[in-house]
From TrEMBL:
This is Sirohydrochlorin cobaltochelatase. The keyword Signal applies. Pfam families: CbiK (PF06180). Keywords: Signal.
Length: 335
């Protein structure tokens, strides 16, 4: 009797998951996810976390177009590292993206001699490390295996660093942000940037990049602030609000902007979101928390544009790729 019950339960569960599986789920094939249009010997793969918001996808498309213009002898492709984002965006729009491993497989198969990979991450944190130490490392193994088997394979791999990587990056991004908000801070308005951040115990080096940008900006004007949604030491309650209260009196106007490549979920909800009556005070958006402290943060003070929407900042990513191409020590080459 027990065996019959277990069999019925197994059949029920199987039927449930079969019924719930959507016909719209992406097919794991090159044709569906990695459409190769080989016109050159070099492929350029842009790698980002991804987004389920429409505005960031317009930013992604603009980035692809600008990289195509900057590197005309390459075939440019875009990859997402977040499988959750890929699934949710695909379910909503029927447009699916592929993770880097699928692109690398398709690129190898297509016979590209050279591959440029440009990280579109802001800091050298978790997502960047995964790209470098997992996806690229495995791609190099595939290159070696194909070479050993005497099959066509990618010969050289060039890897561009994330936005905030070197001292000159801090200066370039800081100067671009200062020029964008110079009039605001000089008029007494506070400008607070929201970075993503990573767990401090594992990615403290990456999180220091936010402090470096903030220090650069504060040397220009004390009304600049940088905090994050993930790095514990830089959360709104631990870092942003105390620093704003020290610098700006209640009643001051504050602008909020993302220090992320795009203005997606965090910018729309954690930064600019409306009050959630079910959430705790510290879980409210930055706009709500600051408004309830007496600061003027109307929704129009929330700038929903990402760093990649500004050419002066996008050019920093491009400079990293230029450096990877030109300098031998930054070339990951199969020999």
């Amino acid at each position: 009797m027990k065996k019959l019950i277990y069999l019925l339960l197994a059949l029920t569960v199987t039927a449930f998951f079969t019924a719930c599986k959507s016909d719209d789920e992406p097919k794991d094939s090159q044709n569906e996810l990695t459409k190769i249009d080989k016109k050159n010997d070099t492929a350029l793969l842009l790698v980002t976390f991804g987004s389920t918001y429409e505005a960031p996808h317009a930013t992604f498309k603009a980035m692809v177009s600008k990289f195509k213009a900057k590197y005309p002898n390459t075939d440019v492709y875009l990859s997402f590292t977040s499988t959750t984002t890929i699934t949710r965006w695909g379910a909503k729009t029927k447009e699916y993206f592929a993770t880097p491993d699928k692109w690398f497989k398709a690129i190898n198969k297509a016979g590209y001699k050279n591959v440029y990979v440009q990280s579109l991450h802001v800091i050298p944190g978790e997502e960047f490390i995964m790209l470098r130490d997992y996806y690229i490392k495995n791609f190099k193994k595939d290159m070696a295996a194909l070479a050993e088997a005497g099959k066509p394979h990618t010969e050289k791999l060039y890897f561009g660093m994330p936005l905030l990587y070197e001292k000159e990056d801090i200066e370039a991004v800081g100067e671009a942000l200062y020029n964008l908000y110079k009039k605001d801070v000089e008029a007494g308005t506070g400008v607070a940037f929201m970075g993503h951040g990573n767990p401090e115990d594992s990615y403290s080096y990456a999180n220091t990049k936010y402090h470096e940008v903030e220090n650069y900006l504060k040397n220009k004007n004390k009304n600049f602030f940088v905090a994050t949604v993930d790095a514990l030491d830089m959360l709104a309650g631990n870092y942003l609000i105390p620093n704003i209260k020290k610098q700006l009196p209640a009643g001051s106007s504050i602008k909020l902007a993302p220090m992320m490549s795009i203005a997606g979920d965090h910018a729309n909800n954690d930064m600019a979101g409306d009050k959630d009556n079910k959430a705790k005070p510290e879980e409210q958006s930055w706009r709500v928390q600051l408004s309830e402290l007496g600061y003027k943060v109307p929704v129009e003070n929330c700038v929903l544009k990402g760093l990649a929407d500004y050419d002066a900042i996008l050019s920093v990513w491009m400079k990293h790729l230029d450096k990877a191409i030109k300098e031998a020590e930054n070339i990951l080459e199969f020999e």
